[in-house]
Amino acid sequence: MKIIARRALVALASVFCLGATYAPAQAADIIATAPSSHYERAPQVCAQGWVLSRISGKFRYQVTHVPNLPDVGLVDFRDIRQKRYEPARSESEITRTYCEATAYTSDGRRHAMWYLIEDRAGFAGLGHNVEFCLVNFDRWKVYNGRCRVLR
Questions:
Q1: Hey, where are the domains in the chain?
Q2: Order of strands, edge to edge, in the sheet holding 74-86?
Q3: pTM here?
């Protein structure tokens, strides 16, 4: 019985020693120290390449997988404007930037487009999330009629 108790005590002590030598994950520290005014320093976030590229990729997926949508792609964005900015008021809230643009499709037509960029809203709270809506391409009314949710 003494051998089992001694082995359990050694195992417990080694767990505590190992736990004390490891530092917290760096990714958590980076997120916790990130400034909440990120978009205030980057007012042109609506026109950044990574945002428009993400919209183009999601749009391509949408027209491929939603029935009865024309097989077109996004070829150009013009008149890009930031409509509204909502900074996070605490560490648990998400910073949101609402944008508006005119999108041109590969068939030569132009469409009104609204989109939203959310900071710290990507997978597992890391990165950004981008939601968008083009008028006449929201077949299932995810963003209400004529994209009202993102306006």
A1: 34-150
A2: 74-86, 96-105, 110-119, 128-134
A3: 0.68
